[in-house]
Design brief:
The protein is an alpha+beta fold. The chain folds into two domains: 45 residues, no CATH class; 137 residues. Helices cover 25% and strands 26% of the residues. It is built from five helices and seven strands. Strands 3, 4, 5, 6 and 7 form a five-stranded antiparallel beta sheet that branches.
Length: 191
């Protein structure tokens, strides 16, 4: 095996290639490059992962009047269509906060979380009762039931009197009263 100490090709910053075995030329090129001053870049900073705070509420949802498919109270009707009433509440809440998730009221009851009013089962009262727990029309004609849902805004923002959402609730005589809540912080799904 023969050892070859010859330098064949040397590259340098000027972009030309030197050929041959002249170590002096290669050495002078290296000295010129070593005299160049390079600006140091700042150290790499890991970006912060945005965090999303979610609030999960258990609340009593009351409908004082039946709601139409257009989301408007029906003054002269006394018959509540639970899928329509609950679906309109989900739709309006989702418009306020697209991160809405409606959970089955009892976690041990099975069922999947829903994020859209169209996911609400229409013809299966047992499935609907998982999301609108213990629905009942009381003697005073008010439909009441319990819901468990998660949004990314606090209760005070959800019930802000000047918001279009709160105005819709009030105008249609729909009342939402939380009985408990849990706040959690998770890495954001966005970005």
């Amino acid at each position: 095996m023969q050892q070859d100490n010859d330098v064949e090709i040397i590259g340098h910053s000027k972009g030309t290639i030197q050929q041959g075995n002249d170590f002096r030329r290669a050495n002078s090129s290296m000295e010129q490059e070593s005299e160049q001053v390079f600006k140091l870049l700042p150290g790499k900073v890991n970006p912060e992962i945005p965090q999303l705070q979610t609030f999960t509420y258990m609340a009593e949802l009351q409908f004082n009047k039946p709601i139409s498919t257009k989301g408007i109270k029906m003054e002269h009707s006394k018959e509540f269509n639970i899928p329509i009433c609950l679906g309109q509440w989900i739709k309006r809440t989702r418009e306020l906060n697209p991160e809405l998730i409606v959970f089955p009221y009892r976690s041990e009851g099975g069922g999947n979380p829903i994020t859209n009013e169209e996911q609400l089962p229409e013809d299966d009262i047992d499935a609907i009762n998982q999301y609108f727990h213990n629905p009942r029309v009381e003697n005073n004609g008010i439909l009441k039931g319990m819901v468990r849902f998660s949004v990314t805004i606090p209760w005070m923002k959800l019930k802000e009197a000047r918001s279009p959402y709160f105005q819709w609730l009030t105008n249609n005589r729909i009342y939402l009263r939380h009985t408990s809540f849990v706040a959690t912080i998770k890495p954001s799904r966005r970005d």
